[in-house]
Amino acid sequence: MRSAVCPGSFDPVTNGHIDIIGRAAALFDHVTVGVLVNQTKSSLFTVDERIVMLEEVCAVYPNVTVQSFTGLLVDFCRDHKISAIVKGLRAVTDFDYELQMAQMNNRLTGIETLFVSTNPVYGYLSSSLVKEIAGHGGDVTGLVPDSVLKSLKERLA
Ligand code: ADP
């Protein structure tokens, strides 16, 4: 069985994330969405809230599950017999960092990272931008799932 992980903060999940998760789900037998628990980074939603939102929107993919992880992604992959990391590449600005991480992860355990080119419709989309715009009362309809839109409005009210 070929398994992959789509890692990230998902604070909150956007339609850009879902596009990548869905495409990974079409390529692999099983995909784990790995929600990074990062104590040093302040977040709008708790890890549990992010998992609930992700589980709801990923329910359409029977081979996708959601799990949090701490520590090194390569250790999480080894413990869960995951052989590939799937990341979305939005622009060249993503590339330097992602290439470095992919090479380091490969150096650590030999794990492969596959890059999926972003759907141009979501090329400019990030969770942080969504939070910033929504925080100033801007409309993020169509950029996040409707359930997330509702949670954003409630949290930022
Ligand atoms: P953010 O959206 O704040 O960059 P994440 O850490 O949650 O944050 O993103 C996890 C991964 O999801 C990123 O490394 C990237 O691979 C992918 N990703 C995020 N947004 C998009 C997007 N709009 N299109 C494609 N991939 C994306």
From TrEMBL:
Name the EC number(s). 2.7.7.3
According to its UniProt entry, the protein's GO biological process terms are:
coenzyme A biosynthetic process
Entry keyword Cytoplasm: yes
Keywords attached to this entry = ATP-binding, Coenzyme A biosynthesis, Cytoplasm, Magnesium, Nucleotide-binding, Nucleotidyltransferase, Transferase
Recorded GO molecular functions are: ATP binding; pantetheine-phosphate adenylyltransferase activity
Q: Which InterPro entries match?
A: Cyt_trans-like, PPAT, Rossmann-like_a/b/a_fold
Catalytic activity as recorded in UniProt: (R)-4'-phosphopantetheine + ATP + H(+) = 3'-dephospho-CoA + diphosphate
| Pfam families, per the entry | CTP_transf_like
All copies of domain Cytidyltransferase-like, residue ranges: 5-132
User: Which class of enzymes does this protein belong to?
Assistant: transferase
Keyword Amino-acid biosynthesis found = no
Question: What is the official name of this protein in its record?
Answer: Phosphopantetheine adenylyltransferase
* Lineage of producing organism: unclassified sequences, metagenomes, ecological metagenomes
